Amino acid sequence: MATNTATPSTTGPTTTATTTTTPQLTNAINAVHVKSVDISTSSPVRGYNYKEEGGIDYEELLKSYMTTGFQATSFGQAVDEINRMIKWRLSDEPINPDVDTDDLLDPSVRQNIKCKIFLGYTSNLVSSGVRETIKFLVKNKMVDVIVTTAGGIEEDFIKCLANTYVGDFHIPGPQLRLQGLNRIGNLIIPNDNYCKFEDWVMPILDKMVSEQKTRETPWTPSELIDRLGQEINNEDSIYYWAHKNKIPVFSPAITDGSLGDMIYFHSYQNPGLVLDLVGDIRKINNQAVYAKHTGMIILGGGIIKHHICNANLF
């Protein structure tokens, strides 16, 4: 133990101060007084600079998310990654003589080869108003390949036939059941909507069975979705625009929903429809295999996430 005694003053009252320091106290002081490393080269936290005049600059607003912190920074990083996908061209990469064919040696050809963007989303996004954002992307050819669930398919067509309504998260299920209503989160869908969907889709399945016999090959799930997009003939539909713009839509669990129920009942009324899953796994994997560069935008998890990631392993 160390004892320090102050020297008495010769001009004033005598004072003595004693400080006792233990190893534990020294360690505590050192722990509190750890010297900071220099991080001045990192981005300081700062949000969007709102101006008194000129309104909001939305491009700058999105850029500011990077330095806003918390989840906004994650959103900003996603924006940057998507911008990389949009801007990429094969001309950004050096010529690879082992891979690039003669036509790919032409700079003008390389400049026109873009990143192939895979978009995946779960059904709840189509049930909600996010559907209109997805439709905008597909209508304007901003994505190249789509993967979604059965609900992500049928909910789009059902909305073309009847409305989904805003409700409440806390409405009891038994009460809604007695009223012939269904709840998705705080969204309400009347049973009648599914009846309208059945009335619309059954005759299309009849035609597909007949055509399958003529063409002598089964349909793939993506061909079924494309056909429904053609038949709906409604510009509000995601899959109308996917059909029109020749954007393939894959749904590996196509029977896991109301559409599966329709296919089930139809198989008794008019047997014969066959959906070829092998054909679709070849199609989606080849979308990645033969692409020069790919990007993935995945909204949700589960089968849509795995299906896209698995294709992009090749």
Q: How many strands, what sense, and barrel or not for the largest sheet?
A: 4 strands, parallel
Radius of gyration: 31 Å
Give the quaternary arrangement of the chains: single chain
Termini gap: 69 Å
The DSSP helix count reads: 14
Can you give the helix content as a percent range? Answer: 40-55%
**What strand line-up does the widest sheet have?**
8-4-3-9
Please explain how this structure is put together.
The protein has helices at residues 23-32, 58-64, 70-87, 107-111, 123-127, 130-139, 150-161, 173-178, 191-215, 221-232, 238-244, 258-269, 277-289, 303-311, and strands at 2-5, 18-21, 116-121, 145-148, 165-166, 181-184, 187-190, 249-250, 294-299. It has 314 residues and is of the alpha/beta class. The relative contact order is 0.12. The model has no long low-confidence stretch (mean pLDDT 93).
Key terms:
314 residues, alpha/beta, 4-stranded parallel beta sheet, 3-stranded antiparallel beta sheet, extended
Secondary structure topology:
Layout: E1 2-5, E2 18-21, H1 23-32, H2 58-64, H3 70-87, H4 107-111, E3 116-121, H5 123-127, H6 130-139, E4 145-148, H7 150-161, E5 165-166, H8 173-178, E6 181-184, E7 187-190, H9 191-215, H10 221-232, H11 238-244, E8 249-250, H12 258-269, H13 277-289, E9 294-299, H14 303-311
Parallel strand pairs: 3-4, 3-9, 4-8
Antiparallel strand pairs: 1-2, 5-7, 6-7
